[in-house]
């Protein structure tokens, strides 16, 4: 740079012209040097690094390239050059150095942010990421670095020690607590959620308060994203999963069975004792033959032992069509290929109501897939609705318009016949 000054002075130019011309040439040379350095770092160094990473067997190398970690770091080269040549302009050296350092800090923060995102992407490739997500922690670390970077930039620009600013932050702690309330609550909630394994990415959760019913697709510092089954996205505050209740269906999914709990309502007026004809018919049913033979033997032994007169069907023990129907349902489910054989299976009566006698099926399918579960459940009840009349039972249903119309037509026909006979 001194050589440029001497060269211009030897040309016997005006000192003022030499001063400005020299400064212009210096700026242009420094700018050219920055452009060359930036070109070398981006076009040569970055390309070499990219080729090495792409040819390596390391799977996560591409993730670092996708986040442009090295490219963002390369922006620091021109700033270092400008800082190194700041002494060339003594009158502006302090300002140039401060601006260069500020730019270096900004580039460093951008680089750290990209690196942290790349680390999160790499971590997601492991199965443990579904159990212990670290996105919330990454965001906290990012906030810490951003805060430190802003403090360093301000202290650099005003020429004071960062400790002075840090001491002033103590007085602003109440304001910071208010500003970062959601982040702090989210941090604590994130630690509890992951530490207690309350929710993972991929879990099916249900939270009616927030209209959430679907799979967790992301857990961040402030929010948990849930993709509902209608493909909408619900954002739930992280701390809401700690303060409010929610249903996590992971236990059902990992158990290998999904509960089937539904009732079949029987018209109580169709319940009766089994006749000999009915028993002869039931004993030919595949799922009932053993049951009928065993029960008939037990009933005969009981009635003979207690010398019960069976001329009146009220006396002693006897089979009923509803009892035989329950036994049929139980045996049918035990032999159904869609029912889990190692989980609870029972057929029970619930309290009768104005809708009839509920026969509840409580069992588990051997698949947790929604479509398979609904298919198995529908197949079972299709069959039960069809076979109920074979047991002399009627499934309860409130009168419909067709029922009322049929009743009206029958009443009219009977009235017409009565008038004619009169």
UniProtKB/TrEMBL annotation:
Task: Provide one Gene Ontology cellular component.
Answer: plasma membrane
Domain Mechanosensitive ion channel MscS residues, every copy: 182-250
Principal location = membrane
Q: Where does the Mechanosensitive ion channel MscS C-terminal domain start and stop, copy by copy?
A: 331-392
Positions of transmembrane segments: 20-41, 69-89, 101-119, 140-158, 164-180
Topology with respect to the bilayer: Multi-pass membrane protein
UniProt name for this protein: Mechanosensing system component YbdG
Species annotation:
Mesobacillus campisalis
Upper lineage ranks? Bacteria, Bacillati, Bacillota, Bacilli, Bacillales
